[in-house]
UniProtKB/TrEMBL annotation:
InterPro entries in the record: Ald_DH/histidinol_DH, Ald_DH_N, Aldehyde_DH_dom, Aldehyde_DH_Superfamily, ALDH_KGSADH
Originating organism: Leucobacter aridicollis
Keyword Oxidoreductase appears in the UniProt entry: yes
Domain of life: Bacteria
Annotated segments matching region Disordered: 486-507
Span of domain Aldehyde dehydrogenase: 9-381
SUPFAM superfamilies assigned to the protein according to its UniProt record, in alphabetical order: ALDH-like
GO terms assigned for molecular function: aldehyde dehydrogenase (NADP+) activity
Protein's recorded name: NADP-dependent aldehyde dehydrogenase
UniProt keyword annotations, A-Z: Oxidoreductase
Enzyme Commission number, as recorded: 1.2.1.4
Broad EC category: oxidoreductase
Length: 507
């Protein structure tokens, strides 16, 4: 093992996590579930104090932050159910089979074990749900791994206050010391990521920083997995029939989705493909009447958004449907009102380099597409990976019986190749915290397109499979024992079946 080059303070944190790892991994599922529930309950109990700090540090509204605390607590409790269910362990048992068609088969049993200490880099735009006790921390702890959280510089006071809540809750239920800790500073985060005792990393943030950290994790003498959620523009496709049926409803939902939290969401719809000459731009203008300005998270994000907005507005063929704007106060904070622009598909193609990059703030682009445009072909033409892709169709089109059903199916197929979530007649900024959720996608949406940072499958990022061959029962993990003391799902392959494999499918 490489000698540690950490500061004494960071060495104590990493050494504590490494020391806690075996004891924490060995906890019974019920004990781990109790820890997760205790964290969720403690977070909600501290909601008024934490939300007050978050409002001051981030500029997000009280209603948004109250809802986010609830979401974060629900995530923790959801993972307690995941731990108790045990299906995430994917326990498989192949009994010894002397008559196996390829020669005698040994007894082989496979399950998943925790990786060990993980570093989690917090996000700026979700100071609860993707921060100190957010979804990554919840899934790391649920997997049986100690977590070291690198606080985001945009809300340091909130991070410390939340960490204090977490430590008190962990102590109250007797969690192993060192199973949770918080550090500050980019250099500290990088130093911990490089330490050989750290077995994986998670991140939510920009493509640039995410790529830097991904490369660091891959360049270590022993590379480790790094799960980053990076950038996404989340294209939306609206059919002519849907526009004719409910243009005002679609416009209202669009503005709400773009303006919510000042557009500082990885799931904000950045591009809306609409039929050329449709009523939607006028409906959007009407829906956006007197929208209030909203403070952006910090001066750096505000300046970046303002520059990105200027670039888009200056691109040939772009016209403002809603001009919007950014106002800077005496403290350097930016206050933004939504900007919606339109551009023809021809000019969008010509200005692709200037337009296609994500604008992290309340801005979206309406791309007017001529009748007969092959919408499915637009995805590979313009985009790499995205977190989501949305289609708005009419009631008749939703039945799958209209003349354009083939085109819509082709669009769904194209989207499914390049996004993690395909949704109909809704808006991508609503991410349900539920077992089946997929919040990930091909690069640059995430650094690993097989993973998700929302939903119970997120736990799989911090586990690795191990097979046990001809292992005496006394030495098997409980998940693989014949008496199954934990009552977990087990996929069992009995002896004597291999000779019949595939026989029922012969023609």
């Amino acid at each position: 093992m490489t000698e540690s080059t950490l500061t004494p303070e960071l060495e104590a944190v990493v050494a504590g996590a490494a020391a806690a790892a075996p004891a924490y991994a060995a906890l019974a599922p019920a004990e781990r579930a109790r820890i997760l529930v205790a964290l969720g309950d403690a977070l909600e109990a501290a909601k008024p104090r934490l939300v007050e700090i978050a409002m001051r540090e981030t500029g997000l509204t009280e209603a948004r932050l109250n809802g986010e605390v609830t979401r974060t607590a629900v995530q923790l409790r959801l993972f307690s159910e995941t731990v108790m269910d045990g299906s995430y362990l994917d326990a498989r048992i192949d009994y010894a089979d002397p008559e196996f068609v390829l020669g005698p088969r040994p007894d082989i049993r496979r399950t998943h074990v925790p990786l060990g200490p993980i570093i989690n880099f917090s996000a700026s735009n979700f100071p609860f749900a993707f921060s100190v006790l957010g979804g990554d921390t919840a899934s790391i702890l649920a997997a049986g791994c100690p977590v070291i959280v690198k606080a985001h510089s945009g809300h340091p006071e909130l991070s410390d206050a939340t960490a204090d809540v977490a430590r008190e809750a962990l102590q109250s239920v007797g969690a192993p010391e060192g199973v949770f800790n918080l550090i500050h500073g980019r250099e500290a985060g990088v130093a911990v990521l490089k330490d050989p005792r750290i077995k994986a990393g998670s991140f939510t943030g920009s493509i640039g920083i995410g790529r830097l950290l991904t490369d660091i994790a891959a360049a270590r003498p022993t590379p480790i997995p790094f799960y980053g959620e990076l950038g996404s523009v989340n294209p939306v496709f609206i059919t002519a029939a849907a526009t004719a049926e409910r243009a005002d409803e679609i416009a209202s939902g669009l503005i709400t989705s773009v303006a919510g939290s000042a557009g500082q969401l990885c799931t904000k719809p950045g591009f809306i493909f609409i039929p050329a000459g449709s009523a939607l731009p006028a409906a959007v203008t009407a829906a956006a009447n007197e929208l209030p300005e909203h403070r952006l998270l910090d001066p750096r994000i505000a300046q970046s958004f303002n520059e990105r907005r200027d670039t888009i507005l200056a691109t040939a063929g772009v016209s403002a449907v809603i001009p919007g704007g950014v106002r800077f106060d005496k403290d350097g904070h930016g206050w933004a009102s939504p900007t919606v622009v339109s551009v023809s598909l021809e000019d969008f193609r010509a200005g692709h380099q200037e337009l296609v990059e994500e604008a992290f703030g309340p801005l979206t682009i309406l791309v007017e597409t001529p009748e007969g445009t092959d919408l499915a072909a637009l995805m590979p033409e313009f985009y790499e990976g995205n977190l989501s892709g949305t289609i708005h169709v009419s009631a008749d089109e939703a039945s799958g019986t209209t003349a354009n059903v083939g085109e819509l199916r082709a669009l769904v197929t194209a989207l499914a190749k390049q996004v993690g979530r395909v949704l109909f007649n809704g808006w991508s900024t609503g991410v349900a915290v539920t077992p089946a959720q997929q919040h990930g996608g091909p690069w640059p949406a995430t650094s690993n397109d097989a993973s998700t940072s929302v939903g119970t499958s997120a736990i799989k990022r911090f586990l690795r499979p191990v097979a046990f061959q001809n292992t005496p029962a006394a030495f098997l993990p409980e998940a693989l024992r014949d008496d199954n003391p934990l009552g977990l799902p087990q996929a069992i392959s009995p002896a004597g079946q291999s000779g019949d494999w595939g026989s029922q499918y012969r023609g």
